[in-house]
Amino acid sequence: MSSLNSQCQSPAPTISDSLPASAERRWLWVCLVVFAFSFAFDYRSPEIGFGTTGSGGSIFQFAMLGSAVASGLFALLIGWRHLLVRPGVYLITFWWAYLAFSSVVAVFQGNELGFILRLLVAPVLIGFGLIVCHIALCGGVPVASVIRLFLAVCVVNIFWQTGFYYVTSSQSLLETRPLLSAGIRFIFPWTAGCILLARRIPISTLLIFGLALFTCVLSLTRGAIIYLAAAFSGAFACLVLAMVFRQISFPHVVRRLGALAAIAAVAVAMIVIFCLAVPTLGEWWIERFLYSDGGGATTEDMSVLMRKAEAEAMFQSLSERSGSWIWGRGYGAPFYWDDDYLAELFLVYPDRENFPEEIYTAGHNLWTYTTFASGIIGLLCLITFVVSPSINALRGVRLLSRLTPGGQIPDLHIVCFPAIAMWTLVATSILENPFDFRLTGSFTGIVAAIPQYFLLRAWLLRG
After folding, report:
1. How many domains does the chain have?
2. Per-residue pLDDT tens for 150-204?
3. What are phi and psi of 350, to 5 degrees?
4. 256 dihedral zone (left: phi>0; alpha: psi -120 to 50; beta)
5. Which candidate among 106, 115, 270, 407 keeps its CA 20 to 30 Å from the CA of 199?
6. Residue 91, H or E segment
7. Has residue 319 been placed in a domain?
8. H or E segment and range at residue 12
9. DSSP H helical ranges for 109-202
10. Sign of CA dihedral 80, 82, 85, 89
11. What is the DSSP string of 228-245?
């Protein structure tokens, strides 16, 4: 590998080139691969629902968790000196402090240990993802390799989730949404960034995007529209900032908007053709859009009613104990759905088992559940966590634009990807709690650590 001096003297250095390699880089890469693939074959049993009182974990899932934790600890053991690189170490320390706080609250609230552990798995995976990716990047693993690994895991998980559902589930197509791959939440932001910000749109990215879009259509996921809107709105915001930083010219913007229109037209045409070829699928999509209020049986969309019932019950539970609004009821605390909404919900779902008196999940909204589990303190911690990577990514754009010869960042879409991904995560979290999925936790930690690479590279280029 070329030295740092030769990289700096290159007429057009590629930002995704690796940093100076450490002696342990190869092993750090192995740790990152093991961690990333730990939950690529994760699954959620169709029998696990709201009323489940057990953890639902199998020996395979415990093995997945063990491999993720082991890879994180091994990376920490051999690369601990890279952990201390700033500012990434601040975010890592902050997140683990939040986990410690949440664990203490859950224990002191008397929550059952099994439920605490089950609901803390995804947040803990965020912490290990931060550690492994931060150490690997600072140890010389190229950020482009991290992105390729990330996309490979997404593709594998899409095929795995779809295959697992069709082999093991007896549910109808209308009930496949819980088994949709968590990788789609990150494929859409990556694709949006490539279309609007990359110098050339990789064909592989378009193929992966097509695969993700196909599975969304097949699973009747209306939320996919929100995913797409959030991802492209975030990418468009980065496009505007890139123009402010003089990274992109107006002709480039025109070309990219034209490419976006063409890709959107092709995607819509293929979806229409597919629905015409499979009429039942088209009918179900119409039902999802036009009859989401239970065919007129309810006053609002069923999804809205469910989230309102959940949120109001959580807030009532917080009000029952003094101090709970400050530090929460703890992870693993049971909640319920407000009785005022059950009359309408029963009109569509008459089976009382669909609405147990005690629910042990991460809920349907990230922000309400975070407030319920860790109070206002936890809510502020979560806001800080999702904002920090975005700020660091945009700082990377500003610094690298000043230090890159010619002022043009070659891989702008990679630099902006964490900001787009975090915005997408925030925008879609009003519909669901993404941390109810273990793979989302792993990916979020990895993505949140990526901006550290660009800040460190800017520091090295400076001097």
Report:
1. 1
2. 999 999 999 888 877 766 666 555 555 556 788 898 999 999 999 999 988 999 9
3. -70, -15
4. alpha
5. 270
6. helix 88-108
7. no
8. none
9. 113-138, 143-168, 184-197
10. negative
11. HHHHHHHHHHHHHHHHHT
Q: How far is CA 332 from CA 66, 360, 442, in A?
A: 21, 6, 20
380 within some domain: yes
* Domain-embedded: residue 137: yes
Q: Does 346 reside within a domain?
A: no
Contact of 365 with 429, CB cutoff 8 Å = yes
pLDDT above 90 coverage of the chain, percent: 48
Give the single-character DSSP code of 19.
P
Instruction: Provide the whole-model pTM.
Output: 0.89
Tens digit of each residue's pLDDT (9 = 90 or more) over 89-123: 999 999 999 999 999 999 999 999 988 998 999 99
Q: What domain range includes position 188?
A: 15-292+361-462
Q: How far apart are CA 433 and CA 425, in angstroms?
A: 9
AA letter at 125: L
Calculated CA dihedral for residues 191, 194, 195, 197, nearest 10 degrees: 140
